[in-house]
Known about the structure:
Blueprint: H1 2-15, E1 25-31, H2 36-39, H3 43-49, E2 53-59, H4 65-74, H5 95-100, E3 106-110, E4 122-124, E5 131-134, H6 144-147, H7 150-153, E6 156-158, H8 159-168, E7 174-178, H9 190-205, H10 208-211, E8 214-220, E9 231-237, E10 248-250, E11 254-255, H11 257-267, H12 283-289, H13 339-344, H14 390-398
Parallel strand pairs: 1-7, 1-8, 2-10, 2-11, 3-6, 3-7
Antiparallel strand pairs: 2-9, 4-5, 8-9
The protein binds 2-acetamido-2-deoxy-beta-D-glucopyranose (NAG) (7 copies).
Amino acid sequence: MRFLLLTAAATAATAAYVPGKAFDRFITIWLENQDFDKVDKNSRIADLSKEGILLTEYYGLTHPSQPNYIASVGGDYFGLDHDSFVQIPENVSTLVDLFDTQDISWKGYFEGLPGPGFMGEGSTAFDGSGWDYVRKHNPFISYDSVSKNGTRLANLQSFRDFESDVKANTLPQYAHMSPDMLNDGHNTTLEYAANWTQSFITPLLANEQFMDKTLVLLTYDESATYPLPNRIISLLLGGAVPTELKGTNDSTLYTHYSILSTLENNWGLPNLGRYDVGANVFDVVANKTGYVNHAPEDIASVNNSLSYAGFLNLDPKLYKPIPAPNLQLIGAGGKGVHETVKANWKTASGDMTPYDGSGHLHDGGDGTADPNAPVYKAQGPAASVTSTPSSTSSARRRRRVRSRERVG
Length: 408
Ligand SMILES: *[C@@H]1O[C@H](CO)[C@@H](O)[C@H](O)[C@H]1NC(C)=O
Ligand SMILES: *[C@@H]1O[C@H](CO)[C@@H](O)[C@H](O)[C@H]1NC(C)=O
Ligand SMILES: *[C@@H]1O[C@H](CO)[C@@H](O)[C@H](O)[C@H]1NC(C)=O
Ligand SMILES: *[C@@H]1O[C@H](CO)[C@@H](O)[C@H](O)[C@H]1NC(C)=O
Ligand SMILES: *[C@@H]1O[C@H](CO)[C@@H](O)[C@H](O)[C@H]1NC(C)=O
Ligand SMILES: *[C@@H]1O[C@H](CO)[C@@H](O)[C@H](O)[C@H]1NC(C)=O
Ligand SMILES: *[C@@H]1O[C@H](CO)[C@@H](O)[C@H](O)[C@H]1NC(C)=O
């Protein structure tokens, strides 16, 4: 009887899945604040990379943590340059709206979250050992389009819910996972977080049901040393990684926006009309779908250390209203901008926009000059990709790098 019930549940979960072109399930797990070169030397991470693809040119978007999380589901960080409480108005859509077009299930799992949809800034561990769950590591909660909708709010759950969903084979098709402030390395060390990560992921990699058509992205939110370009270690793992690619490197330019474009590409989703459009799709997926990524000419000018101007920037001189999405973009899903986005921003369809679909990266410069600031143009189809001169940038790279550790 028990066997029959379990079989029925498993079948139901699988039947509800919307098949993707390269994977049926995407799980992303986020660790905190480490430079590429340091993580690259950790033996636990090296062991894990043998099971997957190491992305050697994956960049965080800015500092500190919170904007990186927010960008990964909304396609911009809106100038955010801090970790405190923020709210983004309801007319800004996210990945959730894209998923709703095909009833693709999703959840966020946050270790130590006191209860589903908890909206506070954080919670303290019961044993008094420090911060546990923090809002700044939750990409969804600051979007009113999620937090003001009870159905969506209920999808923000804890690691205990993850465990029971794995056991019952009822995992959603997309999950963002943030370990607590100790396990993610924020308040501990690189080694502590790497130990946790290996012990957490290894049993999952051995679980056939979990692995089936699953792509796992293990990533850091940002690097630790500010003046360095924001390069981080990211690994693609799971059953969706072909055996012959295990232990290989992929040096395509990626950012957290590549999560959005990869999901759009995999499921043929519409787009948000923001920086999701033009971001490179993970090669393991692009190779299957025939999507053509841009050569990584941007790498030369990447800095991504300071936030550009925007509506969430604390510096009043750097305030700008929320940009209108570019309603004319076609994304990696082969579709236009989501209907809800079009409806919400109809009155702004004549506004200038920084989103041109080119995939170029933007940052806040070095504190004085800002050559990579977003450029506002008339809305229109995707701009063609132009190359950045690399002589100036290699000179910038050779500049002596001051080491300044951070704690955001
Ligand atoms: C962890 O980090 C937070 C924020 O940086 C800090 O307030 C807290 O005291 C730290 N320590 C512990 C043990 O949680
Ligand atoms: C609330 O969320 C559900 C599930 O995502 C969605 O179907 C519904 O349209 C949302 N309601 C509003 C008012 O946005
Ligand atoms: C990580 O694991 C190794 C081997 O089990 C152990 O020696 C080390 O103390 C652990 N490091 C931390 C920071 O927990
Ligand atoms: C992959 O990149 C890492 C980090 O740069 C390097 O140490 C390693 O040798 C590379 N491996 C392969 C197979 O090229
Ligand atoms: C994608 O295809 C290119 C060109 O055939 C190949 O060089 C690359 O290794 C492939 N990468 C992945 C991750 O499949
Ligand atoms: C989006 O919402 C914000 C906050 O309510 C509002 O100020 C702005 O005018 C809205 N944008 C459009 C195009 O309606
Ligand atoms: C990147 O920006 C930071 C400002 O946070 C600056 O200190 C650093 O020199 C810049 N790095 C490069 C390579 O331009």
